[in-house]
């Protein structure tokens, strides 16, 4: 598990530096210095949203399964509430993705 986490961290760090370098090159051509920070903010925001939403979904599913194991008769109601909750949790990551895309493609400093 530590090896996989180490490789994932390395790949994310490498990808962030490449994206930041590309944005810095574009910023030098256009004269704006906010490009690299926009890329960095979008990447960090999406990483935090995806990671924390994943943790929240895991906890929600674990709690729902525990509730279903304790009360099998209420499984349908618990499952319905769990699916609605998971949709709301996932919507937070989707909103963050939309904001990140807007930050990356909207250029108000032209």
Q: In brief, what are we looking at here?
A:
The protein is mainly alpha-helical and 110 residues long. The protein contains 3 helices and no strands.
Written account of the structure:
- The protein is mainly alpha-helical.
- The protein has a domain of 71 residues: F1F0 ATP synthase subunit C (F1FO ATP Synthase, Up-down Bundle), CATH 1.20.20.
- Helices cover 87% and strands 0% of the residues.
- The chain contains 3 helices and no strands.
- Helix 1 packs antiparallel against helix 2 and helix 2 runs antiparallel to helix 3.
- It starts with a helix and ends in a 5-residue tail after the last helix.
- The mean pLDDT is 81.
Characteristics:
110 residues, mainly alpha, 0% strand, F1FO ATP Synthase
Helix/strand layout:
Layout: H1 2-30, H2 35-70, H3 75-105
- The SSE string, one letter per element, is HHH
Per DSSP E runs of 2 or more residues, the count of β-strands stands at 0
Provide a count of the helices.
3
State mean pLDDT (0 to 100 scale). Answer: 81
Radius of gyration: 20 Å
* N- and C-termini, Cα separation: 45 Å
Beta content: under 5%
Helix amount: over 70%
